[in-house]
Amino acid sequence: MIEADPRAPRAASAQVLLGEIAWAGAGDAEAGEGALETFHRVWTLFPESAYPDLEARARARVREGELEMALGRPAKAQAAYLDVIEREPASSWRVRAQRLLAEAFLDAGEWQAAVESLQAAAEDASLLEGGAARREGDAAGRRLAAVDRLVLRPLAGLRPWTGGATLAGVGAAKPQGLAVSDEGFVAVADGGADAALVQQPDGSVRRLSLHGMERPVWTGDRAWVPSDGTLVTIGQAPLSPRGTADVPKVLLAATPVPFGWALATAKPDQALLAGGDLHLRGALALPDRSEPADIASDGRGRVMVLDGKSDRVLVFDATDAPARVILAGKLDKPQALAVGPLGNLYVLERGGRVTVSDRTGAVLATVGPALPGGLTLSEPRDLAVDGQGRLFISDAKLGAVVVLE
Amino acid sequence: MTMRPTLLVLLLLAAATTATGALQMEEEDISFQQGAALRDLEQRFEEAMAVFRSVDQPDSIPMFGDLIGELSAAPAEDADGPARRDLLDRALLRRAEAQFNLGLRDEAAADLRRAVEIDPDLQIDVAEISPKLAELFRTVRDETVGTIAVTATPVDATVRVDGTVRAAKDGVVPVLAGAHALTIERPGFDFFQTELDVPAGKSVPVKVELARTSAVIKVATRLPGATVLVDGQSRGVTAPVEPENLATEEAAPAGDTEEPPPVEDERREPPAVLLVDGLLPGDHVLEIQREGYRPYRAEVSVADLVDYEIAPVELIETRGMLVLSALPEGTAVSIDGEAPAAAPVDGGLTLDLSVGRHELVVDSGTVGAWTTTFELADQETVELEAELHPRVAVLGVLGGDSAAASRLLDDLRGTLGESGRWQVEDHSDAAPAALATLGLDASRLRGERGEAVEWERVQELVDRRYPASVYVLAVLSDDLFASSADLFFWPAAPSPAGAETVTVPLGPPSELDRVREAFDFVPEWSRPSLGGRWMVSPVDDLPVVVEVIEGGPFATAGLQPGDRVVSLEGRPTDELGRLPAGSRTPCVIERGGTEVPTTLAPAQSPSVFVAGHEDVPAAVLAAWVTLGEALDHPPAWLVALNRAAVAVRVDAWESVVRTLRGVEAPLGPGLGQAMVDYWLGTALLATDPASYLSQARSMLERAAAVDGGRLLSDDGPLVAPRARARLEALSTP
């Protein structure tokens, strides 16, 4: 038996924190591997046999899983989550592991297994105290709603969305670019007022005066808005693409990818890859005659580029992989792209139709321009999907963000 | 051994607060002392006789004198009375002889007179003494004793002189000269009584013919102390005395319900007897009663005024039968604190017991125990199924704050026993010292919270000394002012050793609520199964079917994924999970905008009940697994999975492997071999991935190959996606 050290909890937590700092600063996969090693060391140094109730070990293992996912090794990630679920005592980290395992199952199409894991996460969270567990439980609940809306209801012959309404509280005069977080909080680029509106998790709306705004994006609890070639977020210095002489002037959209960003610019045939500080480090291999109109990612390392010129979507299963072309010939003047919580693609066309497909391009549903609830899209600009599968569409003419739920 | 009542009373007064056992001991001691005193006197008599026979015969006179003095002073009515009187007579005779030889005729005559007064029937062997002394004896006797010459009919009548029964030799009863009361009596006859003045050296004749007044029945029972009733009236109690020379004729018991069994064993004690007289001709009801025995009843027909005798009645003990069942293997049974003659066979035990209230203890060691009382009536059969309860042994509260320790101990005992489902056993007196021999004390447990304790040794010790299903040891936070206590729980073998800790603040017993709730846990070896998965939709709050397992209740009801359960028994509900197995509940589902009626009939699924109860100590769960295995005999594979689940809880991966290796569970979908293989593979990886990689891979491949294999129950989490994930992880560099 390994001799137990009473200082273990603090030492283990410190080790995990080191790993998290290393990961946050990791600009590439190699640095990510270093962080992974730091996390893994927690399991080696503080085994279950000597420290049966060490929450930091569960935290490290979950972080390992998340990092494995970012490094493109989903099986390793699932094994890490399973270790936590099957071997660690109840904690918010075990709830998170259950939720992330469900995400992995969803990505693999095992949605029934995902439901079980999400239910377990929600149930475990309900028995725990503390904000972290509650947040993880809420996230699991949102994903269950998404499965119901986007899988079960269609299976029963029901539409995913039963009604539509304009989003209250944001107050954009001419909403254009739009993003929503997993929790359903909204960022809108208001072209009429030259301001970015961000509805914060506490319900308040913050405004940031900006020019030349394009499509915003959420990372975690922070919304970023491309503005005059930079990424701007409230309360933090703007990020500007740099590192090459050929930096495009207009940044159309950005989406997070492991260890950085993928960027769509106004320059044809070009989608760039950058580190976390927007330092450019490469480009996606776009086919000829493509013109990125929007870009999105699914959180599992895949990047989707909407080609506004060829009316198609280019799917990159990894940032260094060649593009797969989907939905070619099925879209009419597409102008915005979003990825939903189950990994499905949502493409908004200028005419107000939204086409939903899986990542192979199989069309699952269409909606619009006439929407449930009686609204009709007339000048749609952007769309977004939140964690529970609610569809948000900004319409400049309606002067509102429409929510389908 | 008997005692004189006077002595016994004295003893009782002297030892009023003495326990019964001690009192019996004193009685025996006194009896022994009496015997020893008599033996001492006999010894001294023999020593005096040796001197008497020697040339120094005169020296024997004071020796006999001392003896005579002591024997005369001793009470004559104790148990040794007759022997003392005999010894006194002999001493008097020998001193008389010695004195006579010295020429002390008067002194000799006085001794002889005294001897005759003690026993008027005293005879001496004239061949052993000088003719002159014999002559002196006859002279003294004739001056002292007369005789009563009794001629009585019937001849077996009892003759009493001055209240003492006197055996008359040829009808002659020697008595001291003077007035005497003579009675002659015989059951069934008149009573004769007279006053006589008997002159010395004379014989007074008395001739009596008693008149017959009633019939007599000699009632005998094999055991003494039986109450005899005739025609409902108590006539006395049989006693181990057999009157002699009682002429009897055969009486014919008629209409009795039970014939006394024939006497088979001639060596048995003579029967206890009661002579019942006063019976007139006619039919009489004879009843014999004795506590603990069935009443004997017979009708006897008295034809004439003669003596009757019935064969000794063999009273039959009142008995009942106890039929015990559901006894696990290796169970010890005791009735009223004693092990019965028979041992359980195939989980059952039938015992022939005396009637009355009995305490039954069923002790199955670390499996469980059961204590109960039951009442048994004559010829009744009581059937009891052993209701073993798991045992929780409270091993003590360690720490110097004795007031807090005492309160916590009381609260623990109360809390643990509150559900009535556990047998709580308190070993707090002895166990702490025993645990200390393994170095287990308050300071060590406080410092390391038990993490470096060799629990295997602790488990081995307590399993042997204080066998129970679960052990609880409390450690106070401080020796002086304790504010909380750590409760260490660990199970008996074969569950993995290793304690779990619950910290409770010291205060009102409600602080132990968590412990009580844990001990309220109810194991469920099976649970209702709907044959699929469902959830309450966050979109419309209706139960929605997520998954339908082929052949299960959902499938039988025609449900499909996405179906919404609009109502159960006509009412909206989100309580699909509460439908009991075996029930049939009408329900309405919505599919594609249409409502479809159907019926839900949940089935029964085996259950790994240990999983998912993290608020219950693993030791408690292990106890229910062990008890359930012994009592309910669930399938071995299900026991193994639950036992493995206990080991998983305490990270005893080697134990998981040992438990599951070789287990054969049902193949195919649902709970079964897929889970066994998955856990085995996982445990092998957790134990030593380098050494057991290929075995683990093989197990996981088998698990992944089972379509519809489930964890924990027939509609639990799917095994295959998990197994595939682990396999892929193994294959990923």
Task: Write up what this structure looks like.
The complex is a heterodimer of chains A (405) and B (733). Helix content of chain A is 30%, strand content 29%. Chain A is α+β, with helices and mostly antiparallel strands and 405 residues long. A 4-stranded antiparallel beta sheet of chain A has the order 1-24-23-22, with no helix packed on it. In chain A, 55% of the residues are buried. Chain B is α+β, with helices and mostly antiparallel strands and 733 residues long. In chain B, the strands form 11 sheets. In chain B, strands 10-9-14-15-12 form a 5-stranded antiparallel beta sheet, with no helix packed on it. A 5-stranded mixed beta sheet of chain B has the order 24-23-25-26-27, with helices on both faces. In chain B, a hairpin with a 5-residue loop joins strand 20 (356-363) and strand 21 (369-376). Chain B is elongated and about 135 Å long. Chains A and B meet through helix 4, helix 6 and helix 7 of A and strand 30 and helix 18 of B.
How would you summarize the topology of this molecule?
The complex is a heterodimer of chains A (405) and B (733).
Chain A: H1 8-24, H2 29-45, H3 55-70, H4 74-87, H5 92-107, H6 111-127, H7 131-155, E1 164-166, E2 175-180, E3 186-190, E4 195-199, E5 205-209, E6 217-219, E7 222-227, E8 230-233, E9 236-239, E10 251-257, E11 260-265, E12 271-275, E13 280-283, E14 292-297, E15 303-307, E16 312-316, E17 323-326, E18 334-339, E19 345-349, E20 354-357, E21 363-367, E22 380-385, E23 391-395, E24 400-404
Antiparallel strand pairs in A: 1-24, 2-3, 3-4, 4-5, 6-7, 7-8, 8-9, 10-11, 11-12, 12-13, 14-15, 15-16, 16-17, 18-19, 19-20, 20-21, 22-23, 23-24
Chain B: H1 5-14, H2 20-53, H3 60-73, H4 81-101, H5 105-118, H6 131-144, E1 145-153, E2 158-161, E3 164-165, E4 172-176, E5 178-185, E6 192-198, E7 203-209, E8 215-221, E9 227-230, E10 233-237, E11 249-250, E12 253-254, E13 272-279, E14 282-289, E15 296-302, E16 307-309, E17 319-325, E18 332-335, E19 349-354, E20 356-363, E21 369-376, E22 381-385, E23 391-398, H7 402-417, E24 423-426, H8 431-436, H9 442-448, H10 455-465, E25 470-476, E26 484-491, E27 500-505, H11 513-519, E28 526-529, E29 532-536, E30 543-548, H12 553-556, E31 564-568, E32 585-591, E33 594-600, E34 603-606, H13 618-632, H14 636-649, H15 653-660, E35 670-671, H16 673-687, H17 693-705, E36 709-710, H18 720-731
Parallel strand pairs in B: 1-7, 8-16, 11-16, 17-22, 23-24, 23-25, 35-36
Antiparallel strand pairs in B: 1-4, 2-3, 2-5, 5-6, 8-13, 9-10, 9-14, 12-15, 14-15, 17-19, 18-20, 20-21, 25-26, 26-27, 28-34, 29-30, 31-32, 32-33
Helix pairs in contact in B: 2-3, 2-4, 3-4, 4-5, 5-6, 13-14, 14-15, 14-16, 15-16, 16-17, 17-18
